[in-house]
Amino acid sequence: MKKEFKELLQSKGRTELPKVLLASAECAPLSKTGGLADVVGTLPKSLAKLGIDARVITPYHRCIKEKYSDRTEHLFEFYVNLGWRRQYCGIEYLELNGVKIYLVDNEFYFGDRIYKGGYEEGEQYAFFSKAVLDALPNLGFCPDILHCNDWHTAMIPMLAKTVYGGMQGSLRFLLTIHNIAYQGKFGFDYVQDLLGIDSKYYTPEFMELQGCANFLKAGCVFADRINTVSPNYAEEIKTAYFGEGLEGILSARSAELSGIINGIDLAVYNPHSDPLIPARYDKGHLQRKELCKLALQERIGLEKRPDAPLFVMVTRMTEQKGFDLIERMLDELMLYNDMQFMLLGTGDRRYEDFMRLAEKRYPGRLCAYIGYSEELSHLVYAGGDFYLMPSRFEPCGLSQMIAMRYGTLPIVRETGGLRDSVKPYNRYTGEGTGFSFANFNAHEMKDAVLLALDCYRSPEVMRSLRRQAMEADFGFDGSACEYARLYIWML
Predict the structure, then answer these.
(1) In the prediction, which pLDDT does 2 show?
(2) What is the DSSP string of 22-57?
(3) For a disulfide at 411, which of 290, 333, 428, 435, Cβ 3.0-4.6 Å?
């Protein structure tokens, strides 16, 4: 055990590190729609290196059953009272990659989609929240910290401290906000029907926001500590521009709010050993990265030109990801600069149609791959020269970290975790790991792209920047240490 942790524990009158149970709607590699799954799947492995017993409880989604049912062990079953409904719940156990995982089984709620959307999704995760609390006494594992993630599990602290009559005992609740834009907003009658919460809590003091019952707000009120996924985002969400209506409660609880930047799985994202790319390389053998670029160009139908700067994106096509800036500036950049552009992702129909038409305007220079392929994404990260990420807001972001790991220089807006993780190029000192612009403005994004193009014309500058980007440490071990400190402080 680290000396620092021993001293912290002594100050709490403890000798043992806390036990942690992470509750989440998804967990990689079992179930995944975004970065939340990567965090929940990776953090327990990094905590284990520190001696912390961290386990996961997550729904037993159909996609998990199809792949892992022969490896799970049935622990016990019971029924969850959800308003007038009485629903079956089974608890299955799976150990995968050293992580101990409890799976909440109910075919009605978790038999098709991870997120059903709308009021169905509210019922889906109201069931999950109650199932977690009902299962706790019989798991054979007594956590000190119940680590909740996003609105889907944010009701757990409130339920434990109200409906369940303080059953939490010494259990402490941490709520991590991965994206404050998603809050779980429902009518009071609906929530009353599902969860039986006393109407005295349907006020702005507890869970009401803009006339709705707000699951995330309830979590922010009742959790013992709140954190989010980067230090800068923790400051941003206390303001009206980024807070999405929750800036008041977050400012009021500023002393209990912190930011811990996420990391990536360095074993999965490693250009030196990645089995999904055609040529493996490291910062000392960057010439082999050019082979990945040529392979990518051939794979997606771009002109095989090692001299043409290739800008790439792996993203959801939404306004949050800055696609209105792309829409505003793409033609101007493509017309007046000798560059190539490749996008991998899906999103709003408007942006998908825009990219399809752009591909027709620039044959051989622009590819819009509307869809997703994990294998192709690795080749995109390895084969690109620059990674464009002009987000309107970005709580943490993992793509820019992956891109730097592969020596593909990110171009980002200075917001949230992008500001925390990308060091902008300084033309006077040569320092930097990418490029950035301050305001959500198409012309500022264009200026950052032009600076990147200027650097591309200098092989020496590019080699230096790529090496510096690849040397940046975005492994989860550092984040795990921060979480360990937070867990201990919560005891």
Answers:
(1) 83
(2) EE-S-BTTTB-SSHHHHHHHHHHHHHHHTT--EEEE
(3) 435
